[in-house]
Specification:
single chain; about 240 residues; alpha/beta; Rossmann fold; 2 domains; five-stranded parallel sheet; two-stranded antiparallel sheet; globular
Length: about 240
């Protein structure tokens, strides 16, 4: 009887307040993803496909194939060893990341991190060689403003899937910086310069590390974080973002 009443209340709630897609705002049906996104919007997420840039992981166009590196990375070499991202930062995934970061929808971490895990499996990324996963940290002031670090939620989900330890407190963002999205590409390099520090360098010495973030645009933030880790003695630093 209790189960019947719960189902009845749930059914009435769905009639009065039907679940809608976070992107297109249409009513969700049984094909939806995690009762959050309709199948049409989910299928419209553009995936990065080979050949990939050997540095940032973006899909290469024909003009970049001879060097196997994109023009952005050719112009500004990064301090990380290699980066990967399952999605191109446009369309539905851009909308979902915005909802995730700025509209307090931290529960989206589980759904979005699945795209990252699927990419790891599909392209056989050698996560078994990793010693630590580190989320790109927020400055304390921005963390208080947002109340959670989206990169840390993604990192913990990936770490749980592959049984790798997360280190979320040793790499810190000790200098407040402007939001990178507000800046031109060259200004982003200056904006994040010397903004990361390591509390206990010996914990990273000789380690292979995966940095995790939600988005990579120019790669300036990830590169600067990787530099701090390399200066602390890290062996290899890779980057995994949801989109680039």
């Amino acid at each position: 009887m209790k189960k019947f009443i719960v189902n009845l209340i749930s059914g009435l709630r769905d009639i009065i307040y039907p679940k809608i897609c976070l992107i297109c705002r249409e009513k969700l049906d049984e094909k939806c993803v995690d009762e959050l996104v309709c199948f049409k919007c989910w299928a419209a997420i553009r995936k990065n496909t080979p050949p990939f840039c050997r540095c940032c992981g973006r899909s290469l166009n024909n003009r970049s194939l001879t060097e196997n590196i994109c023009c952005v990375c050719l112009k500004n070499p990064a301090h990380f060893d290699r980066a990967f991202a399952p999605c191109a930062y446009e369309g539905p995934i851009k909308d979902l990341i915005r909802e995730f970061k700025y509209n307090n929808k931290d529960y989206l971490a589980a759904t979005l991190s699945r795209l990252m895990s699927d990419f790891i499996r599909e392209y056989d990324i050698p996560v078994n060689l990793l010693d630590l996963i580190i989320p790109i940290p927020l400055h304390p002031a921005r963390l208080r403003e947002r109340e959670f670090n989206q990169a840390e939620l993604l990192a913990k989900s990936i770490a749980s899937s592959y049984k790798i330890m997360v280190s979320a407190d040793n790499l810190v963002r000790h200098r407040y910086t402007r939001n990178q999205a507000e800046l031109e590409s060259q200004d982003r390099l200056v904006n994040v310069k010397d903004s990361f520090a390591v509390k206990t360098p010996k914990l990273f010495k000789g380690k292979n590390i995966l940095l995790v973030d939600d988005v990579m645009t120019t790669g300036a933030t990830s590169s600067e974080a990787a530099l701090a880790l390399k200066n602390a003695g890290a062996n290899k630093v890779f980057v995994l973002t949801l989109a680039n």
